[in-house]
Amino acid sequence: QKELSSFLEKQQAEARLHASIHNFTGICWDKQVACVTGTPSTRFSRGEESCL
């Protein structure tokens, strides 16, 4: 019983971590897409650099 509870706690903590990472990735992706001009280049523009 105790092992099962411990296992479930660890799994829930891992699920919360994955959800947080997914959320932060979405936020950062949206901000990144909003600040990139869309012009392919080997370097970032000045505005893109400040956004990053």
Automatic annotation (TrEMBL):
In the record, biological process GO terms are: protein transport
For this UniProt entry, which segments traverse the membrane? Answer: none
Which Gene3D superfamilies did the record assign?
Answer: Mitochondrial import inner membrane translocase subunit tim13 like domains
State if Hydrolase is listed as a keyword.
no
Give the location in the cell. Mitochondrion inner membrane
Has the keyword Ribonucleoprotein been applied to this entry? no
Please give the chief subcellular localization of this protein. mitochondrion
Keywords from UniProt, A to Z, are:
Chaperone, Disulfide bond, Membrane, Mitochondrion, Mitochondrion inner membrane, Protein transport, Translocation, Transport
Q: Which InterPro entries match?
A: Tim10-like (IPR004217), Tim10-like_dom_sf (IPR035427)
What family is this protein classified in? Belongs to the small Tim family.
Domain description: The twin CX3C motif contains 4 conserved Cys residues that form 2 disulfide bonds in the mitochondrial intermembrane space.
Known function: Mitochondrial intermembrane chaperone that participates in the import and insertion of some multi-pass transmembrane proteins into the mitochondrial inner membrane. Also required for the transfer of beta-barrel precursors from the TOM complex to the sorting and assembly machinery (SAM complex) of the outer membrane. Acts as a chaperone-like protein that protects the hydrophobic precursors from aggregation and guide them through the mitochondrial intermembrane space.
Q: What is this protein called?
A: Mitochondrial import inner membrane translocase subunit
Give the source lineage, highest ranks first.
Eukaryota, Fungi, Dikarya, Basidiomycota, Agaricomycotina
